[in-house]
Each structure stands twice: as structure tokens, then as C-alpha cells.
Specification:
This protein is mainly alpha-helical. The chain is about 85% helix and about 0% strand. It has helices at about 5-25, 35-65, 70-95, 100-125, 130-145, 145-150, 155-180. It is globular, with a radius of gyration of 17 Å. The two termini are about 15 Å apart.
Amino acid sequence: MNLRKFWFLFGTTAVVGMALGLLAALSGLFHISVVFGLITGGFLSATSMMGFWAYLTLNFTMRNFVTFGMWLAIQVLLIVLVFFDMVYFRYLGFGGGEGSVWPYIGFATWPLAVALVGAFFKARVSGGRSFIPAVFFLYGFTVLEWFVALKSGAELQTNLIGLILIGCNLYLLFQYTRLLKQPSPKR
């Protein structure tokens, strides 16, 4: 990865985020203006980039301290813990521990389903060893980036933010793979 590729990744991720925000505004589902959609998408794309670099740093660090198999097991455990957190603690916080838990399970499942599908295609491009890390990044880090919105309780805006974040994270995952496969230009 060189600076040219980094700036390309940064700029195109911002465009993807703004395009997703624009589509959300134009769809009318989220009741936001076009300008707000563009600004929100741009901001969330930057958040997504920060999460991606944090994941790359964590992955690099862990791969130097534990075996690959151990790191995969840790990632699976963290995915399970994130899912549990998305269901149980939201159920306690917003539902007061009363009523049905099914809406909370559904809310925790849709980003996991997107992460599983995205990781499946990532594994087809990069090999089977990339499946668990892709799910971990797409689910765990999306939820981490999404944390403040999840605490707000505003379901419509929370879904908007989640959709933009997971869209940007999917783009980053596949574009990064493509950029790493390209040879660096010679001087």
C-alpha cells in the first residue's frame, strides 16, 4: 500500500458513503434531506475508514502475538459476544427486560447476515482463510462504529447509519483486496 492507493481508497470510500447517503435521502424511507444525506454519508465514510485502519492494526498486532488459529478463535468469540451484546443489552436497555426479545434478535441479525454474505464473497476472492476475519471486521467493527447511534434509540436513523457503515465497510474490504493485488508503480 502506497500513498496513492491510500488516497484513492479514502476518496472513493467518501464517494461511496455520500452516494449511500444520497440514495437514502432520495428513497424517502429515512425522512432526511439530500444535503443531510450527503453530509451523513461523508462523515460515516470517514468513521468507516478509521474503523478499517483500527482493524488492520489490531489484526497485524494479534498475528504477531498469537497463532493464526488462536486469532481466528478469538475473532469467533468476539463475534458471538457482539451478537449477544446487540441482543441482550439492547433488550435490557430499551425493552427494560420485558416484552419480546425477537425484535432485538432481528436487529442484531441483519448486519450479521450482511457480514456473512460479504465474507462469503470475500473468501471466494481471497481464499477460505479470510472468511472469519471478514465477518469479524464487517460485523464487529461495524457495530463498534455504530455504537453511539445504537445507544440513541432512534430506530430509523440508527438503521440509516448502520446501512451506510456496512456499505462503506463492504467497499473497503473488497477495494483493499483489489488494491493490494495491484503492483505498485515503478519510479
